[in-house]
Write a structure and sequence with these properties.
heterodimer, A: alpha+beta, Alpha-Beta Plaits, four-stranded mixed sheet, two-stranded antiparallel ribbon, 10 strands, B: alpha/beta, N-terminal domain of TfIIb, Rossmann fold, seven-stranded mixed sheet, six-stranded mixed sheet, 24 helices, globular, disordered N terminus
Chain lengths: 194, 776
Amino acid sequence: MTRLAMAIDLASCVGCAACSIACKMENEVPMGVHRLWIRNTTLGTFPNLAIEHRPEQCLHCENPPCVPVCPTGCCFVRADGIVDIDVKKCIGCSACIAACPYDARYMDPKGYVSKCDFCKHRVAEGRVPACVETCPTLCRSFGDLDDPNSPVSVALRNATRVDVLRPGLGTEPKLFYLNTPAKFGLVGERGGAA
Amino acid sequence: MRRREFLKLSGATVGAMALGGSAQAQLFPDGFPNPFRAPPGKWFTKDDVTTSYNFCEICFWKCGIKATTQGGKVRKVDGYAENPKSRGMLCPRGQGGVATTYDPDRLKRPLIRVAGSARGSGQYREATWDEAYDYIAEKMNAIKFQYGTESVAFYGHGTGDKWFAEYLPGAWGSPNAAKPSVSLCTAPRETASVYTFGRGIAGHEQIDWEETNYIVLIGHHIGEDTHNTQLQEFALALKRGAKLVVVDPRFSVAAGKADDWLPIKPATDTALLLAWANVLITEELYDAAYVEKYTLGFEQLAAHVAQYTPEWAAEITDIPADTIRRIAREMAAHAPRAVLPVGRHVVWYGPDDIHRMRSLYIVNALLGNYGVPGGYYFCDAPIVEAYPHPELPLAPAAGGCGGGPTEVAADSPFRPSVDRGKFFGSATAVQEFIEPMITGEPYPIKGLFSYGVNLFHTIPMVERTKQALNNLDLYVAIDILPMEHVMWADVILPESTYLERYDDLHLQAHKIPFIQARFPAHPPLYDTRSAFDMAKQLGERLGLGEYFPWSDVEEYLDRRLSSIGSSLEAMRNQGTITRRGRPYFADYERLNRNPLDTPSGKIEFYVERWAEAGLDPLPVFLPPIEGPAGMYRLLYGRSPVHTFARTHNNAVLMEAHGENHIWISTREAARLGIANDEYVWLENQDGVREGPIRAMVTERIRHDCVYMVHGFGHKAPLMRIANGRGASDTHLQTRYDLDPVSGGAGLRNNWVRLIKGAPDPQHPPIAWIERERSRA
């Protein structure tokens, strides 16, 4: 089995948005919407401070809430674990946008729903997603979770701490955040709600 | 109905019709193709995709890129692994910079100011290139006959500045050529480096990140200032476990990664550095063998810094003496793999700057890291012969980021530059040319070229600059966008972007020195030219044709490349040629050579030549210039997605960061009753007002200063995205303090107050403007 996943090392990320803009260019994402965005949060008080730079995008959940709500079957999970959209079947009903707890989906002005697809066109050519390739802090790793030697498996193994967004929902995301600057993990995750 | 008639009848729907499959090309109303519309009825296949090597021009780090073009439009640029700067990665600006080429607000053809209209009123008529060149040549010759060639000044910044700030001024005979990248950026660090080490820093900061284990950043905003390679190496060093100390009045992004953040009182960094030198010497933690072998003047230094104790520095800097001692000891414990990297923009406080830079270099040398793995490495640009040409009447005067200026020789028929005598160093200072435009002293400047230098977002005292421009007989602006200073010009020459033009080779001093080339991805979209072509055409009209002997840019490049056994065609498929560097002392000593080009051949702690000139031969602490009570020192910095004031009309980058904020500490904001995200006015010590700008109420800054990102606050109505968004720090810089040694203009001695009650400017969303702009 292949389970494609991504890990982002927050100890390295500087929130520069190279990933976000590479994504925009690579996928010709329309103005006004994003497949990938950055959330910056300051923690603590002067002079004891920390900053969490957190890129966010589709988490490609193992148990994706967006898939079962789709009335046409255009939202589906590929064999390699990418949560995908068949835009030809999409009627733009937005049920999946409402179902996604991470706000990862948007309505494309062309009339269908869209989101991060791990740059499936690049994956098909054996290349990594555009965000992974461009990152100047090398904070992203991508690969197959079922392959212990894949970059993502290695990164997960070497991390001091691994978090996912809103673990309490049981969505089992395949986007992992490593080495959060805060000891308690991701910002907004205490008490379960982001 | 005949087709033409049908089109006439349904004029309103022509756009939609064409998309539906008409063979007609998509045109803007002004006759140029609309890059937003794909050619109709065409699906692209992989065979339609072409790639071309280039180097990025969105900032001046100049990463090697590969542009992917499809259907006559660049779809994406990426780094490539063989290039030592990009190494296959790109920063946000590089990624999004493509949108600048397809910006519908671009300058599209030469423009000449309508006779009799006021400068800045924006009344222009379209002109042909011949007309524009003739107009300029005639005016230049008139200035030459009345005042002399020196009375035409040249400013330049960017790859084409070679032609407009070096070559053309040299051929024409004006020493008044300057780059803002010197006196408004790096001058103190270059002058200090040349006199301490006998070598400049030269553009790319040669820090051996790969080998270092302990990093101390002094106000160096890595992460906010996304110099691609530097950010990669910094991130890798931290991943490797290198310790990081950040000295900054603001909790910068780099501070967020630090083991220690020292929130220093602004303008007191020199005291901290001198105290570190004191601890390293008095506790005998310095590298004695290195100091003995490579340095000169240690005894004088030791005696001099004895007064600068950590207790003395603690009072001045707000950093406890124990912390100062601890960091000095940690540095020494990691030496020589401990480094205090030199920053880039170092014109902060004026006279203090040279002492800060000298202190920084001295602490590094005491750690024994200069020319040693884990410290500073040596680098030189690879050598490619120039295209053979007659010797220029005047050696190019502007120098560059790396200094290297040439003074006019005493026996030269040309007068020295107008800023001679104002400071010790030999580089020209952009800001010092303005006064002679107004006063005519020591001699008048009557003509000005501005190649890619936004005069109103670069040079402090904007009103003075406007007054100076009004005194000129000729002002030529060469640019890509209708920036505010461009709309003051007599002649506007529109330049092709980096994706549309060839350029001269870029020779990069780096740990792996390399040569990179630029190939156009497609022909220019509009009636634009490259600086290379403009300089030649203009030169020929000025009777300087002999200095431009090449036929065109391809022949020029091929000839130059043939001197290293390559060719234009080979380079087209390669992009980058790397060379072997000599990074360390050991590499030079093997060849019995000395990389230190000082009079003594050593690292000079004590600069004899300065003592002779009546300057301080050892760095001293100058008490900070203080501002009016109740005002905050105005600090400024960078955004990771913007470059200077150049990228603020780029829709993609502006969507990522669309306005700047004024950072103010939570404590001070509470006192003033200012809420987070509230719009405020900024008013400086001279009553100049800027804004509205949003307040960012944060714990991340000291209470005695405020901070904003530079480059916003454009006042250029023709730049429909940039116009009016955020506020400009340059407009608030109504004073500067000249560094009497390097000629740098210290810009951080300006103070502001925050005034409540500014209206929300209610900017429309960028996506909306973009939609409006792209309608043909």
